[in-house]
Amino acid sequence: MEAWIFFKRTVRMVFVGTKAYYLWCAFLLAIIGAAITFYTKQLDAGLIVTNMRDQVSWGLYIGNFTYLVGVAAAAVLLVIPAYIYHFDPIKEIVVLGELLAASAIIMALMFVLADLGRPDRFWHIIPFIGILSFPNSLLAWDVTVLNGYLVLNTIVLYSDQDVLRQGTDQEFRHSACFTFHSLGGGHPYRDCFSIQRARRPTLLERLHPGAPFSGQRLLLRAGHGPDYFPGFEKDGGDENQERGAFQGR
Amino acid sequence: MKMMSMGALAALSLGSSSCTQAQMEEFLQKRFREMTEAEKKEVIQRLEETYLRKYGKKFGISAQPAGYGVLWGYGLDLSRCIGCRRCVYACVKENNQSRINPQLQWIRVVRLKKGSLINLENAEHYYNPETVPEPGFMYMPVQCQHCENPPCVRVCPVKATWKEPDGIVVVDYNWCIGCRYCMAACPYKGRVFNWSEPNIPADELNTDVHYLGNRPRMKNVVEKCTFCVQRVRNGRYPACVEACPTGARKFGNLLDPSSEIRYLIENKRVFRLKEDLNTEPKFYYFFSA
To answer: What domains sit in chain B, N to C, each tagged with a CATH number?
Structure first.
């Protein structure tokens, strides 16, 4: 019941604003409308409309996906100064961070879905109904971790409503959720703890068996050094590599 | 319970009015490996009817399983290959690949400068000479290497691709969700993707097909070389072996000590591509001269 009231209040908040706010929303809705049109076209004609080919079979969709996962992880990083180092002024921003994280994760999952060639066979990947190749496929790990991450973020957001309303401290709940993040494994975990390394390749990109080899040739042609891929790290991952990683993406 | 939930899912995603019985059955179809013999028969019958409607041709779809004591291996004589790409087009024809937009080919013949064979970084994919062979160059056909430890199989999130008991790596085109992770994982670029609905002229269709091999595919699924599973399980050579004008391509059973491929492995200087990746390919390159 409490959740329903929270939901109703949130929806009411979304529909109230200034003229500029409505304009902005109309603009965003126009983009969403255009995207839906294009996606219908893609469903109809196949992924050929993306102009990807066998040489580059993962394009903007996967690029956006990894980017948004990074955004989500970075947003959650605000938890660390606020609740581990007890830096109080940042505590209110943590709520915004969590909001951003939740929406970024939703967008990331939608990008993966858009990248799927056969979304009509989506049920194949749902555990117990279809077959999720869990311990073997890293994509299965990604699916699990990201969905778990989304659930956690939703829970955190729900617990944050008190902070929004009254400014009550939610230290305990945050810590608990943060612990869950850490237990969850996967890239949110890694990104939380490698604070200086703002953005590393996701688990998906990093660990799949062919990565160092199938990607390397392509990137060498494009003028990137072999230090782009983790299999070729000669100097064990110093700060300079981050620049290379950004250019490569 | 499982069937019920899937039925509900089907109704939700397909809508009730626009969906025929056959489409519904295709949607709910299980993974090939989990089907019983009766289910396989049913699916194949339905597929044959679908193909008849779609292409106006009677297809014979086989689901012949792997034979016992068979592990297929491939040999390729680099000193004989002249880069004519007859194998490429024989393969396209035999295996019902899409002809235009996109044109899919399972074999890539890369061009290497003589003397730098070891450095695959210098391999050329795209070249168009008047005649082959060109002086100073040699040619290396690359296709699915049918690894014993295939990275593409490991990464598939829905187990739509697997290694058969006779060592052939196959795809269940009706189970693939089109995520293209296998393409990213394959170090040999052995897989290609149907970016749109395949285009095959009806009179060029090969109607002698295998369920896991050369049956016509649909859009947005991955496909690959199957060593012509429809042929080799019937005691024939793959189409590329038959098409090669110089006899550079060899094929045989690795478990048979008297086979040609075993002779080659034992007596020639063979190597496998990217052996350091521990993929254990069953595709042996060698020089006879």
So the answer is: 65-289 (3.30.70.20)
